[in-house]
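2024-03-11 09:14:02 DEBUG pipeline.ingest accepted 1 chain
2024-03-11 09:14:02 DEBUG pipeline.ingest length=132
2024-03-11 09:14:03 DEBUG pipeline.predict start
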Amino acid sequence: MASDHDIDGLSGRQIESRLKGGAADMLNRLGTTVLRGSRADAPIGPPDKVYERHGAMHPGALRRSGRRSRATATRLRTVIEFPIEHAGPQHEREDYDHPQGGKAHYLSDWVKAVTPLMAPGLAEMVRRRLDG
């Protein structure tokens, strides 16, 4: 006999496990989308102002430095970062010219683009996970 917390024969713990696993999968997919897009939009080389102040930086180093942590059912969070010294100014400074390619706000633009996909993605994930 099913309890008040059962849905289609699934216990509350089974439901929770399915939903958390699905949420982690969705976060990982969206995180991968953000990472790939932001890597493609990150500046290839530093602008002249950075060369003058900090010396040469290998072209493409910023793009290659991008990484993402993996969400799990017990850690529903993914972090995308570009952990090199000049990533912050490259991201924020709109006055930098990037003649080799790339742009400012390479990460935040992708986060903004993907954010509207989260609610419909969660709704679809819930439907799929509870259907079996």
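2024-03-11 09:14:41 DEBUG pipeline.report The CA atoms of residues 6 and 81 lie 40 Å apart.
2024-03-11 09:14:41 DEBUG pipeline.predict end
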